[in-house]
UniProtKB/TrEMBL annotation:
UniProt signal peptide: 1-21
Basic and acidic residues biased stretches: 143-154
Domain of life, source organism: Bacteria
Region (Disordered): 143-165
Composition-biased stretches (Polar residues): 155-165
GO molecular function, one term: kinase activity
Protein name: Type IV pili sensor histidine kinase and response regulator
Transmembrane feature ranges: none
InterPro entries: Integr_conj_element_PilL
Keywords for this protein: Kinase, Signal, Transferase
Amino acid sequence: MSRQLLLASVFSLLAGCAAHSAPEADSAPAVIAETHAAQRISHARYTLISTEPLPEQLDLLAQIIDIRIPANLNPTVGEALRHLLQRTGYSLCAEPSDGPTLYRHALPAAHYQLGPLPLKQALQLLGGPAWQLTVDDRERQVCFRPRGELDPRRQTSQTTPGERS
């Protein structure tokens, strides 16, 4: 009896598989694939990737940096700026021989580690509030020029430890 039941099950299973036809392909996914073809492509088997450039590729100063400068180097601001600009596509312009100097100042200990933050913010951070960051995108050079007048709120007062202003 069990043998007959087994044979009946096998035949019904085979008949059920043979009776069903394959479903027709739906045309909707093809339309979706066509509309997104310019933005995403299939890569490998199950991965879709974007064909549009990343924001960091469009605006090089928006790239996120994370640097650490060894403490034993005792670097200057200029050396830190050059280190920061390595492999970014930008270079540091020459400091004018006349006028104030930024590049020769010692790098503050607080700036030995920067990031993660956008490159433009890191450059302005190294320059400080007294210096205006200027960028020549054609030559891909980064320069600093002194700001006109410092914000009076940023100037420190000359008070003794016992006095309050």
